[in-house]
Design a protein that fits this description.
Blueprint (H helix, E strand, L loop, with lengths): L3 E6 L5 H10 L12 E3 L5 E6 L4 H6 L5 E5 H7 L4 E5 L5 E8 L14 E4 L2 H10 L5 E4 L7 H4 L4 E6 L3 H5 L2 E10 L1 E5 L7 H17 L1
Parallel strand pairs: 1-3, 1-4, 7-8, 7-9
Antiparallel strand pairs: 2-3, 4-11, 5-11, 6-9, 6-10
This protein binds adenosine-5'-triphosphate and zinc ion.
Zinc ion binds next to loops.
Pathway: Amino-acid biosynthesis; L-histidine biosynthesis; L-histidine from 5-phospho-alpha-D-ribose 1-diphosphate: step 1/9
GO molecular function: ATP binding; ATP phosphoribosyltransferase activity; magnesium ion binding
Main location: cytoplasm
């Protein structure tokens, strides 16, 4: 029997819940802060602990058979993977925000404007669908400071409470996408008997919670 590999986030917002759901499936494994890989004692499975950004590609390329990662990260990576199950945690919304003093009320007013983001693919798709021609400034973090520095007219980012927006003189303008953690598989692995067994266990953990 082939040992499956599942990639989960090593540390960050999805790590704890990802470990928890696997433990609740009855999987027995050691979870040391320093480990990059753990072997499950009672199921043919190894757990790879990775940065979330790397998970979609690992699964697409079959280096991992399964993965748990935010939908936003999968779509941004453009990864071709099978979606098996939304997991009900890691929920967030990606929004366009503008300066609180801004008089922008229509999407069309973003034409010719600069938008700072770490999610250029998702943003470009949305702008194209809405016939907006804006300049995307791809920066890897702290996009909220962009407008105050004159780097951008708007930002596109994950917004949870709005507190970060407010403290940077910004306000939410458009919700573009909502996201949660999902279980994904390499294309073709969806029908593997052990994958199906694991999926069933995850689904009953989710049902017991609901
Ligand atoms: P890594 O070190 O693995 O690259 P990261 O810093 O990119 O981690 P986290 O901040 O841990 O990522 O967020 C992981 C995922 O959690 C996000 O991609 C998103 O799907 C989800 N998420 C839920 N709420 C939030 C939030 N308030 N801010 C950021 N991400 C959130
Ligand atoms: Zn990341």
């Amino acid at each position: 029997m082939k040992t499956l590999k599942i990639a989960i986030q090593k540390s960050g917002r999805l790590n704890e819940k990802s470990v928890e759901i696997l433990k609740n499936c009855g999987l027995s494994f050691e979870n040391y802060k320093s480990s990059l890989i753990a072997t499950v004692a009672n199921f043919p499975l190894e757990i790879l602990f990775l940065r979330d950004d790397d998970i979609p590609e690992y699964v697409q390329d079959g280096i991992a058979d399964l993965g748990i990662v935010g939908e936003n990260v999968i779509i941004e990576a453009g990864a071709d993977v099978a979606y098996l199950q939304p997991l009900g945690f890691g929920k967030c919304t990606l929004k366009i925000a503008v300066q609180s003093t801004s008089d922008i009320t229509e999407l069309s007013q973003l034409n010719g404007k600069a938008i700072a983001t770490s999610y250029p693919v998702i943003l470009q798709k949305y702008l194209t669908e809405n016939n907006v021609d804006a300049q995307i400034r791809n920066i890897s973090g702290s996009v909220e400071i962009g407008p105050g520095l004159g780097l951008s007219d708007a930002i596109f980012d994950i917004v949870s409470t709005g507190g970060t927006l407010k403290s940077n003189g910004l306000k939410a303008f458009k919700n573009v996408m909502s996201s949660e953690a999902v279980l994904i598989a390499s294309k073709g692995m969806e029908l593997n008997p052990e994958v199906l067994e694991l999926l069933q266990r995850i689904q009953s953990v989710l049902r017991a919670k609901a």
